[in-house]
Every structure is written in structure tokens, then in C-alpha cells.
Amino acid sequence: MALTTNKYILDWVKEMAELTQPDNIVWIDGSEEQLEQLRREAVSTGELIKLNEEKLPGCYLHRSAINDVARVEDRTFICSRRKEDAGPTNNWMDPDEMLAKLRKLYNGAMRGRTMYVIPYSMSVVGSPFARYGIELTDSIYVVVSMAIMTRVGKNVYEALGERPDFVKGLHAQAELDAENRYIVHFPEENTIMSVNSGYGGNVLLGKKCFSLRIASYLGRKEGWLAEHMLILGIENPKGEVRYICAAFPSACGKTNLAMLIPPEIYRKKGYKAWCVGDDIAWLRIGEDGRLWAVNPENGFFGVAPGTSMKSNPNALETTRKNTIFTNVVQTAENTVWWEGMDKTPPRGAINWKGEPWDPDSGEKGAHPNSRFTAPAKNCPCISPEFENPKGVPISSIIFGGRRAKTAPLVYQSRNWQHGVFVGSVMASETTAAATGAVGVVRRDPMAMLPFCGYNMGDYWQHWLEMGKRIPNPPKIFNVNWFRTDDMGHYLWPGFGENMRVLEWILARCFNEIDAEETAIGYIPKLGDINLEDSGVSKETLAELLNVDKKLWLEEVKGIKEFYAKFGDKLPGELKEELATLENNLD
Ligand code: OXD
Ligand code: MN
Predict the structure, then answer these.
(1) pTM for the complete prediction?
(2) Separation of 146 CA from ligand 2 center, angstroms?
(3) Would you say residue 434 has pLDDT above 60?
(4) CA 498 to centroid of ligand 1, rounded, Å
(5) Residue identifier of the C-alpha nearest atom 3 of ligand 1
(6) Average pLDDT for residues 168-193, to the nearest whole number?
(7) Closest-CA residue to 257 (of 136, 141, 400)
(8) Average pLDDT over all residues of the chain
(9) For the chain, how far is it from start to end, CA to CA, in angstroms?
(10) Cα separation, 343 vs 351, whole angstroms
(11) Which domains does the chain have, with CATH numbers?
């Protein structure tokens, strides 16, 4: 029975059911009873595998189809009415043409199946930040995963009332046909359509599709920002908590930084770190003139491989109950394993494809993009402010990527406009070879390349406009944990040691410390990064902070090439900043 009287929802569900023709429609109410019943049903069909209840209570394993294991950027579309509104970094098709194509794929796609109607909220239901969505899906995996990643429940209907401003999301697994897989956004219609996939990033529509692509579009219209950023609070010995947001491309350690454990010398002094979010931040200007952030999600969809007691004990602890694992190794004792968890791969285990696996075969047991979907409240360092509907005030925005050489360990932009420039030219390299060969640079502005729901040039302009409206804006920095020596060895230990850099950043934000000016911005004075017990020498720090003008002139060339794609949409302010950089390097 329908759980709402909202006419817009009822009409849309009816229309989509007529198109996809499910045998049944089940309205999800968010109750534990209903979710448990669905988990049982999924276990009976093999869609979920119940894991060892003693070792991993409430945990399940899911295997996606072998051809369906990652986000598909080449099949992801922004179908705005005008092509120029999608811009040069997005795939675009005329919305009517795309709809005609999709209708054929959805036609009868749920025959013999059940359509689940999931009401969900991004952010705390009823809060000023909250935005609501309804996802229609024929996958129980999606229902139970959405119940971890978002706030699912009947109260969404109450909060929405009779209003039409919810995000419509339609997902059908159809044939899981990779040739006809589409992840499509109609920003002007508040609509997302996903077909022929069952992989989380393509089908948990609250995440990338809504909270970044649609929300970035809404943010521009309404004067706020939806960003691919973690949110972290650093508590000092006086008990003050200062918050940062940080944007890094995939595989640059966002979840690790979000759950950072400060080094012992900091813990002894009373420093603590609190995770507010690991992937998405919605940012608004507060009444006090600062920028405030909420994490709209309610869980973590983290990459499993590499997560260990050493790299991220908090993440590992987060996954010890009520978690859904996707495409990891299933051990003989019905627990999970992945590469990088420890040094002893299990014997007699089953690989991500569901086949018996021999660790000596040279084949990986877990898929490199295997995932955990875990409730945020499981995280040992989850911030007490996680549920605060107002969010947290942001002192610093940090951009970063993986650069073997060019970018120093840390530098500060001169002001907001320069900071937007720094974010707009963000880049990350494919992993450098051990010989020190430099990888291929991919530009990934603000780590939003695959997630910006409109023209990236307009997006930069929006950032610049926001800066003019924030009386007390966060200071903007760039970090690079991945700088290497000429042999290709990392110079910086990373992980918890990154606290040392955050300490400098926060001290800069509160005008507690001086800095040195360079051609690219401010860098720390050599004595101002605490190296006690870090194993890093002052000489190494000097190398980490070195700004090589020759490399930066090369960088300028790359930026010019990238900027040229945006034509008239490139804001004049960014052209100015590029010219200033070039001048400073002369
Ligand atoms: C990503 C993710 O791909 O967070 O960025 O899953
Ligand atoms: Mn992400």
C-alpha cells in the first residue's frame, strides 16, 4: 500500500510502473522488520550471502556481475536541455533523444520482478540542509544498501508533504548489459535514470548521482556548494575542534584522511581527530559569515583493498558489523578478506567471482574496486557533530592529488580567488613506477571531473561568486602526500603523520604562524612542520617543500591546454591567476 498521499510521487510511481511492468510494488518504510525480511529473501535467492554471525554480526556479502564492477564514466550522461550547459567534461545527449532510448530499455524491464519504492533523505530528515529523493529499484541489494548509506523511512514522506521537489531516481537491472548501461541525469527535471547495472556507484542513486551531480546543479541555482570532499574535525588539547574539508581524486586516501589517527606525540598532548564525512560535503554560508558543511550521507561506501589495521584501523572497525561487502574474498570460515588487509591470504577461500581461489595463482582474490558499505555510526571516531543539522564551520579547504614531483607537500593559496584557481588545476598521476618515472597527469578539478552536473566553467564561476558572498571564508590549501625522490620512493610517510601538515594548515587559518611566500603561494618555514618522531629529516622536508620552477613552467603549459577546452566559459579571474603564476615563475 502506498505510504504517501503526495500526488507527484503517486503519479510518477504509477507512470514508471506502467513502463517497467513489475509484478509487485513494495513501499519501503525503513523499519528493521521490513529490511530484515528483505535480507532473508535476498539470502534465499543468493543475491546476498549471510556471513559468520559470530565474527561479523549482521554482515553480508554481495557479488556483482563480472562485467559490472565500477562506475562507468563513459556511459554517464548529463542531459541538460542545452549541450553547453553540460560542458566539455560531461557526456551529453538531447534529453528527448535520451528518453526515447531509455524508454525502450526500461520497457517491461521489471516483468516478473518487484519494484521497491525507497523514500530517502540526504542529511538529517527535517533539517534545513536536507534534500529528499525517491528511488525506484528492482534490487534488494539497492534497498538494503540505501538503508545504510542514506536515511530511509516513512518520515521522509512527512517531511516532504505534498511538495514536488524530490529527486526522482529510477533503477532497473534489466539484462545487466554493459552495451546498454546508462547512468543518466536530467538536472532540470530533478531526475536520475540508471539501467543495466547493479554496481553500487551506478545504482545507489543518493550518492554520486544525487548528492554530487544533481546537488551541484541545485547548489549553483540556490547559492551553495555540493563537493566531493571529506569533512574532518581536529580537536586540540584545549578542547577546541577546528574543521577542514578536503577534495582528492579516487585512490588518493580520502577515507584514510577522514578517519586519521594522530601520531602518538599528538595523542599524548590531547589531540583527537573526528570524522564527519569521507566523500561528500554540502556547504552553505552560515549566519555567522563562515562556511558550514554537512555530510549528507549516513554511511561509508569505501574501497576495501588496502584497508588494514595499519592503514586505517577505524575503517576496519567500522566494517565489523551490519556491513555489506561487495566483491571481496569469502574465507573458509565465512568471513571476508582482501589484498592489503594482512600479509596472509586465506587458504580454501572463494574469490570475488565466486570461484575457489588459490592465493599462489598470482590472481587477485578481491576485485581492486571491491567495497564495504557500512553505517557511519559504527565508526569509532565518528564526530559528535555528525548528526548536527547545522553542520560544522569550516576553517580550511584542502585540495590534493598524487604528484611525484611538481606539487610540494603543502602550500597555501593567497586568497579565495587564487584558491579556486588551485582547485581548478588539480591533477593526479597514475602511480609512478619504482624507477621514478612520472605517471600520466589527469586534470581533475576539485576532484569533481566525473561528478559535476553542469558546465565546469560555470562551476568555477559559481565558486568565485560564492567567495564574494562569504564574509569569513575558509583558507584554501593544496597538499601532496605522494611526492617521491629520484628513485621513486615516497618522501612523506602519510596516513596519521599527515596530522603534522594539518596542524600547520590550521595554525595558518587562525593566524598563529608565519609562512614563506613562493611563486605558487605560501609554504611552511622549515622549522614549522613538527617532525618529532616522524622519521623525516629536515633535509627531506626541504625537498618535499621545494618548488621547481622548470616543472611548474611545464605545468603552466598543461593548464593552458586544459583551460582551452572551456572557451568563453573560462572565468576571467582564472585567466588572471594563470598569468600571475606564469609571471611569478619568470
Ligand atoms: C568514488 C567513490 O568513486 O567514492 O569516488 O566511490
Ligand atoms: Mn568518491
Answers:
(1) 0.97
(2) 16
(3) no
(4) 21
(5) 250
(6) 97
(7) 400
(8) 96
(9) 70
(10) 17
(11) 7-30+75-222 (3.40.449.10), 227-295+386-585 (3.90.228.20), 299-378 (2.170.8.10)
